[in-house]
Design goal:
This protein is α/β, with parallel strands linked by helices. The protein has one domain: Response regulator (Rossmann fold, 3-Layer(aba) Sandwich). It has 5 helices and 5 strands. It has a 5-stranded parallel β-sheet, with helices on both faces. Helix 3 (66-74) links the parallel strand 3 and strand 4. The chain starts with 8 loop residues before the first strand and ends with a helix.
Length: 121
């Protein structure tokens, strides 16, 4: 009998390529398979219909907010686990992320906090 190993995959969406690559590198060291998109437009085809199980996105993206991206993907993938990151930690931004069904993580990114959020999946 073969043992099936579940690989956790993460789509990282941030228009800051360097930050996205840093997050991908840290998560890869923790055993995640990562993919990067630099815009919501680039992320959508990667996320639907059978994309990564976890979405980590910046709130401020070209074309739409990270919260809107989460909402759009969750229309067809309700079980998607999502984290919205932002340097804007006002109530409106945090509420938008949470109302989209995502956890919120302030920037600058605390990789220990991000790892804990993802480990809870």
């Amino acid at each position: 009998m073969a043992i099936q190993v579940m690989t956790k995959s993460v789509l990282i969406v941030d228009d800051n390529q360097d930050l996205a690559e840093n997050i991908a590198e840290i998560l890869a060291m923790r055993g995640y398979v990562t993919e990067i998109a630099t815009s919501a437009e680039e992320a959508l085809p990667k996320a639907l219909p059978d994309g990564p199980g976890i979405l980590v996105t910046d709130y401020c993206l070209p074309g739409m907010t990270g919260a809107d991206l989460v909402r759009q993907i969750k229309q067809t993938r309700a079980s998607l686990r999502a984290v919205v990151m932002s340097a804007y930690t006002d109530d409106r931004t945090i509420s938008a992320a949470r109302s989209a069904g995502a956890d919120f993580l302030p920037k600058p990114v605390d990789f220990a906090s991000l790892s804990l959020l993802l480990a809870a999946v």
